[in-house]
């Protein structure tokens, strides 16, 4: 009877080995998928655009021909010229320099805001999807309440209450974006938690924290990464809209949305003042969207 019991139990220790293989190969597969980006024209264009703005942001002090906040009252609202390639604004500040430093501001705020939002959203989504019960009910209830508000209204309310600043923009983005992220992660976890390798981990006696961190999250990373790229685009648009409304980064920091707002009264006579920052916002959003499309194509091949 003992030998028969051992024969029945014996396969159990071997089962996790094959089920754990995708997790052990997770990082190798991730780097392999990154290499596959070159096979997607959308991904390559997106990566090129995003990298362009990242390089511009990193080397802003070297690339900007002027101080972005330097007023030149002898060069007010000048059109593009040899000295000011993209012209000057209503205060005589060089638009090219402000675009360059604006990239630095937006690429320092938007990624941090999204990382914080995803940290909160993933934590809530994994807890809700894995444990279920009253935790799932409570998280779902709060998520549904927050998602019932239009995002732009939520942004405006939060920033009107706390005032415009980089930290408050991050808080507003986290509060507005994390519920939708939690809902997505919850759905992924509900699909994964009953698979064999999760059951094998439970049989081995692994802790719930280990299962959520090692077994569930790595196998849900594909849709999460794609969603991250898409939400980066949404966040950049939101920061631009907030800047246009005067609720973004406080002046005199270069803010692409604020630059468009400053020129709205002069859009007919001096259109370049609004066109160039609008192109900057659009190009960066398109870059992240194309990158997300490319990552989605790769994930569908698996």
Question: Regions with pLDDT < 50 over 5+ consecutive residues?
Answer: 1-24
**Beta-strand share of residues:** under 5%
Number of helices: 14
CATH architecture of one domain: Orthogonal Bundle
CATH topology of one domain: MetI-like fold
In CATH terms, the superfamily of one domain is MetI-like
The largest sheet, given as strand count, sense and whether it forms a barrel, is: none
Number of strands: 0
Classification by helices and strands? mainly alpha
Shape: elongated
Report the end-to-end length measured between terminal Cα atoms.
44 Å
Report the C-alpha radius of gyration, rounded. 24 Å
Order of helices and strands: HHHHHHHHHHHHHH
What does this molecule look like?
The protein is mainly α and 302 residues long. The protein has a domain at 95-302: Orthogonal Bundle (MetI-like fold), CATH 1.10.3720. 74% of the residues lie in helices and 0% in strands. The longest helix has 37 residues, at 95-131. The protein is elongated, with a radius of gyration of 24 Å.
For the structure shown, list the relevant keywords.
disordered N terminus, 302 residues, 74% helix, MetI-like fold, mainly alpha
Tell me briefly what this model is.
Helix content is 74%, strand content 0%.
Topology of helices and strands:
Elements: H1 2-9, H2 11-24, H3 26-35, H4 41-58, H5 60-63, H6 95-131, H7 133-147, H8 151-162, H9 166-192, H10 196-203, H11 208-216, H12 221-244, H13 256-262, H14 272-301
């Amino acid at each position: 009877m003992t030998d028969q019991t051992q024969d029945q139990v014996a396969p159990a220790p071997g089962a996790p080995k094959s089920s754990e293989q995708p997790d052990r190969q997770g990082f190798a597969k991730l780097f392999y998928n990154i290499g596959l980006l070159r096979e997607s024209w959308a991904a390559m264009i997106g990566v090129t655009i995003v990298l362009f703005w990242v390089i511009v942001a990193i080397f802003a002090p070297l690339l900007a021909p002027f101080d972005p906040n330097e007023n030149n009252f002898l060069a007010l609202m000048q059109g593009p010229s040899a000295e000011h390639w993209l012209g000057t604004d209503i205060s005589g500040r060089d638009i090219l320099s402000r675009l360059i430093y604006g990239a630095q501001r937006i690429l320092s705020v938007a990624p941090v805001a999204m990382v914080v939002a995803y940290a909160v959203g993933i934590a809530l989504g994994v807890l809700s999807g894995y444990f279920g019960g009253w935790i799932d009910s409570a998280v779902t209830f709060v998520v549904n309440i927050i998602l019932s508000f239009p995002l732009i209204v939520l942004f405006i309310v939060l920033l009107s209450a706390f005032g415009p600043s980089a930290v408050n923009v991050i808080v507003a983005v986290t509060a507005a974006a994390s519920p939708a992220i939690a809902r997505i992660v919850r759905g992924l976890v509900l699909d994964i938690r009953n698979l064999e390798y999760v059951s094998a981990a439970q049989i081995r006696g692994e802790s719930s924290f280990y299962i959520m961190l090692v077994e569930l999250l790595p196998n849900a990373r594909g849709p999460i990464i794609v969603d991250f790229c898409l939400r980066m685009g949404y966040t950049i648009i939101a920061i631009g809209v907030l800047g246009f409304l005067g609720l973004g980064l406080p002046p005199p920091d270069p803010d692409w949305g604020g630059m468009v707002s400053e020129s709205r009264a002069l859009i007919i006579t001096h259109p370049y003042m609004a066109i160039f920052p609008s192109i900057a916002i659009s190009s960066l959003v398109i870059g992240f969207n194309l990158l997300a499309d490319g990552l989605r194509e790769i994930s569908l091949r698996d």
